[in-house]
Amino acid sequence: MEREWDPVEVASRAARYDREAFAELFDRFFEGIRRYAYFHTGDEDLADDMAAEVFSQALASIENFTDRGGTIGAWLYGIARNVVAGHFRKSGRVHEVGLSDELAEPEEHGPVQTVFEEMSNLELYEALSTLPDMQRDVVVLRFIEGYDVDGVARIVGKRPGAVRALQHRAMISLRKVFGLGPDGKPRTASGGLERMLPEEAGGVVPGV
Questions:
Q1: What is the CATH T-level fold of the domain 7-90, as seen in this structure?
Q2: 193: which residues sit within 8 A by CB, 6+ positions away?
Q3: pLDDT (tens digit per residue) in 11-55
Q4: Percent of the chain residues topping a pLDDT of 70
Q5: What pTM value is reported for the model?
Q6: What does the alpha-carbon distance between residue 179 and residue 45 come to, in Å, rounded to a whole number?
Q7: DSSP per residue over 33-60, as a string?
Q8: Beta carbons within 8 Å of 123's beta carbon, 6+ residues apart
Q9: Cα separation of 95 and 168, whole Å?
Q10: How many CA atoms lie within 13 A of 169 on its CB side?
Q11: 69: Cβ contacts below 8 Å, ≥ 6 apart
């Protein structure tokens, strides 16, 4: 029988260089981290390399990881953020966006997420590339990787209120990109967006 996933227990074993535990971490998080890198770069091969680098760095520093109640995923995504940011620093692009910590009501589920479900990875990358970097982080982690607000806050180093504000701003921007009105219904769509928009605005991204 397959053992139930216990992030604290697996992290503890991985910190003692247990190969099986580290393999569990790889199997559980590699694909998500690869997606995270792809949605920041738009390059499949580069995303693979970045994900591999994340786990290389994780293996080198896992003995220093201190679990605080199932935070191993946040730790790995934190490394991923640094790897992605390092890539853009080397290429001359500043990969950071400032923001105030104002509170805003988040759009937890709705038409934007429904559009996500209709899009290919390339289309989703192109849409997300219109967002500032930190907003893109929040959208990918919340609605593609399925982290809750507190989990995203740990990964990006912001307070939960700041994450909600970032999410709210990102949803407003993506509504415009997708041609959605304030009521969540499609405006007159053009080009490739028309086929991306569902007939009815509603639904939930799985895992959120």
A1: Rna Polymerase Sigma Factor; Chain: A (1.10.1740)
A2: 177, 178, 179
A3: 889 888 899 999 999 999 999 999 999 998 989 999 999 999 999
A4: 71
A5: 0.66
A6: 31
A7: HHHHHHHHH--HHHHHHHHHHHHHHHHH
A8: 192, 196
A9: 20
A10: 21
A11: 8
Our CA angle for 48, 66, 25, nearest 5°, is 35
Structure tokens given for 87 = 């890539």
Residues in the chain: 208
Please state, in angstroms and rounded to a whole number, the distance separating the CA atoms of residues 126 and 39.
8
Residues whose CB falls within 8 Å of the CB of residue 12, separated by 6 or more in sequence, listed in order = 21, 67
Tens digits of per-residue pLDDT, 47-83?
999 999 999 999 999 988 887 776 899 899 999 999 9
**Angle at CA 119, nearest 5°, toward 118 and 120?**
135
Q: How far is CA 92 from the centre of its chain?
A: 23
Domain boundaries, given as residue ranges, for the chain: 7-90, 111-196
Assess contact for 29 and 73: CB atoms under 8 A: yes
Distance CA(195)–CA(139), nearest Å, equals: 22
Distance CA 170, CA 201 (A): 17
d(CA 27, CA 180): 37
Contact 168, 175 (CB under 8 A): no
**Residue 102 gets which letter from DSSP?**
-
CB distance 50 to 75 below 8 Å: no
CATH class of 111-196: mainly alpha
For residue 37, the 8-state DSSP code is: H
